Amino acid sequence: MQKQQIEVEAMEIDKALEELKKLGEDEVVYKSAGPLLIKTKKDDTTKELEEKKELSNTRLLVLGKQESRVKENLKEIESKINEMIRIGQTQRGTGPGSTGTPNPGK
Prior knowledge:
The protein has 106 residues and is mainly α. The chain has one domain: Orthogonal Bundle (Helix Hairpins), CATH 1.10.287.370. Helix content is 70%, strand content 9%. It has helices at 2-22, 42-94; strands at residues 29-33, 36-40. Strands 1-2 form a two-stranded antiparallel sheet. α1 (2-22) packs antiparallel against α2.
C-alpha cells in the first residue's frame, strides 16, 4: 500500500514537471502550501519537484528490496512448515497405535 502511494506521488510529480516544461521562463507559477497558493519561480519549483522525484524513486527502491526480503522469508517459513508437516505425518503413520498397522499387544 505504501509502495502504491509513492508510485502515485511519483506519477503526479512527473505530470507536474511536464507541465512546467511547457511554460515559458517568465510565466507565473504557483505552488500549494497547505490551503494557500504561493507564487514561486519556475526554476525553483522544477528543482524542488526533481528532488522529490529522486526521493520517491529511492523510497520505491528500498520498499522493493524490503518486499523481496519478506517474500523470501515467507518462502523459507512455508518450506519449513511443509517439512514439519511431512515429518509429523511420517511419524504418525509408522508409530505404534497408528491406523496403518495393527498393534498385536492389544
